[in-house]
Amino acid sequence: MTDTLFSYTDAEEVTLFVDLVLPIPVPRLFTYRVKRDMAALIKIGARVIVPFGKSRVITAVVASLHNHPPQNYQARYVLELLDEYPLVTGYQLQLFAWMAEYYMCCIGEVMNVALPSGLKITSQSKVQYNPDFEHPDLLTPQEVTLMEDLKKHPSLSYEELGRLVGEVNVPTLIKSLVGKRAVIVFDEVKEKYVPKMVRKVRLHRNYEQPEQLLALLQRLDKLPKQQEVVMRYLRHVPMQRNPALNEQGLEKGILNQDDELSQSSLGTLVKNGVFETFELIQPRFSDTFSPQKEIVLTAAQRTASDSIMAEFAQKNIVLFHGITGSGKTEVYIDLIQKVLAGGSQVMYLLPEIALTTQIVVRLQKVFGDKMGIYHSKFSDNERVEVWKGVVSGQFQFVIGVRSAVFLPFDNLGLIIVDEEHETSYKQHDPAPRYHARDVAMMLAHWQQAKVLLGSATPSIETYYQAKQGRYGLVELFQRYGDANLPFISLINTKQEKKQKTMKNEFSSALYNALADNLERGEQSILFQNRRGYSPYLQCEDCEWTSQCLNCAVSLTYHQRAAELRCHYCGHKEDVPKVCPTCGSTKVRTVGYGTEKLEDQLQILFPAARIQRMDLDTTRAKNAYQQIISEFEHGNVDILVGTQMITKGLDFDNVSLVGIFDADRIIRWPEFRATERAFQMMTQVSGRAGRRADRQGRVLIQTSDPSQVVLQKIIDNDYLGLYDEEIVERRDFNYPPFSRLIKLTVRHTDQRVSKKAADVLCASLAAQLGDERVLGPEQPLVERIRNQFLYDILIKLEREKINFKAVKAFIQSCITDILTDKGLRAVSVIIDVDCL
């Protein structure tokens, strides 16, 4: 794809066409015709507005320019060019195409996920009065009323018309008026991104010189309120010493914030030409910092940093295996400074927004406002500003979650994937179902950048690649500041229940440890990987349980909201006062989640300050930051949370961690369960005892302390875990020795879903063999949103197999299913490298 500007004389003028990426799930590009006045301006990577279908107007991205009309359809015109310079780079278009091929989806689906919503255009149907309408006698009384309303406005949206006419069917009414040629319907296209504007005032240029300013103040002697407004302006903008300061002006609110009289006086001064008002675009990331020029590394951190640079001299990808609390972030900062000093860009990926809150503050102290931040809790406008800041060069360094891989970098020198083992890097819905770590590696390959994968508990696949010599490996097994790893002990809850020493869900050991911690003024973290109050309600008499109407799963009880809620489809119900089946009043909660633990803590320790951090308490934009800030400043004694509290948070005063329900984590029916249990519990254990002057404690509640993985967690024996896991993976042909593709067949009729899955599975096995195609089988949750699910797992060897050809065969088998008359209503979800 070459960005050619076409220039022809009138005699040899050739029509320009563009191939566009449209944000729709269709596996192809679309060709459109370019208007003559747009031909010299349009470029590859620019956004355009185009018509699609009968009435849609959508945003597309230019993928190529040429002069070949499409063969099978009449090309329509590009309506509008949105960008003077491209907002999508050539590398991004290459990435979109690669992801569509690798993750078996459409390039439009990739683009739809990649572009922030603020860069996509919306069209809104509007209605206006037709000035050429000549037959009012054709109108009904209702239409006459509406026409009178339309005459008063330049145009109205369907929604605005609905408010005017009440309960009338607006589309039917408009359709009638269009048929009578009484109104004109058109699409008003709006770009979602809205710059942040600040209203300012400044003295008119006639008063910039000292003698002119003095004369103005003397003239206002008899108007003290107006004179006070001018004096207030001069206190903020000392232009009497430097007239040039007046150009930037002062925010209007600063002058009229005190009282209504000052607002009135300012208005009079503007009217009389003393002040002039104007607007400026203000960046949303305008905080100012005083960056510290360098960070001081310990001897161990310096050795690690130097070793990483040495490995980068030979390999493009390096695994940095550093135990929890070893100070990996300081090493990252040292490497980032080196890369930025060399003029290249840096991308720093984190798995969770919760992690960015604390680390961002640390990084801003070093890099100031030159650093961009990108994650889904930001508004559309904020994300667009970061996107444009990368294009313009304002941000050479961006920290963000998985979606940051789509930012328009074109000169990457380093990508850091922190906590690379985390499942949060994998997107599950919608397509593309990508893994940000793997996408980052491909992006780095194209831009000749280096990739640093960091983790205290690397994924088995990553550590295997490092042991095989494909990745470099640097390890740091010393905690920062000579702090010790926490002391971990197991609490046998089965035994405590027999002895009746449990206090609700708390063992006596954990209860006593919490009490001691509170007495010493130290903080505690409690980890339970289940939110809500209770997993479900059950009737003691007839054993009825609360079930979702749409999904094959129980409804979780949320006490604070007083509702039963499905965590799959969002369905909500009121809590029944009696059993819906038998009428019994003996309806009880079963199991426990973070909300219930929080309530029990308030009862057990009424004086304690308790906070909960899970999906329910962190929905607001700044909720993570507020909770972490409160805990960091010592305003919270006990923090209860789900796995978001396991990831990289650093608190000096945490000396105790309690882990609940370890057995459920370990026994999850999935081949990675042991690895995930080790990672999760090791990571949350690492939050304890990060100061050198005291060793932290970790108490794990389990009904079976003999489980092998628990001893490995106690010993911090990652290498022992790896040695056992890699043998099992090899024996049963799981990653890293194979690639996995999961196909999920869905339909509202279980028989149709089963039949489609059986046919698809048979077609795949006939070519690939039964040993490579497993299933179909129903997943743990067999029905979601009234769709019955069947899974097919395809295991493909990493060596001696044409992965691209196999994927093309799988796609053709799926197409056969989707075009079969009896099965075409099914849908098939493709998940490449499924977790």
From TrEMBL:
Q: Which residues form the Helicase ATP-binding domain?
A: 309-476
User: Which intervals of the chain form a coiled coil?
Assistant: none
Residues that hold Zn(2+) 1 according to the record: 539, 542, 579, 582
Record has Cytoplasm as a keyword: no
InterPro entries (alphabetical): DEAD/DEAH_box_helicase_dom (IPR011545), Helicase_ATP-bd (IPR014001), Helicase_C-like (IPR001650), P-loop_NTPase (IPR027417), PriA (IPR005259), PriA_3primeBD (IPR041222), PriA_3primeBD_sf (IPR042115), PriA_C (IPR041236)
Q: Give residues annotated as binding Zn(2+) 2.
A: 548, 551, 566, 569
Q: What is its EC number?
A: 5.6.2.4
What family does the Swiss-Prot or TrEMBL record give for this protein?
A: Belongs to the helicase family. PriA subfamily.
Q: List the protein's name.
A: Replication restart protein PriA
Q: Which organism is it from?
A: Fibrella forsythiae
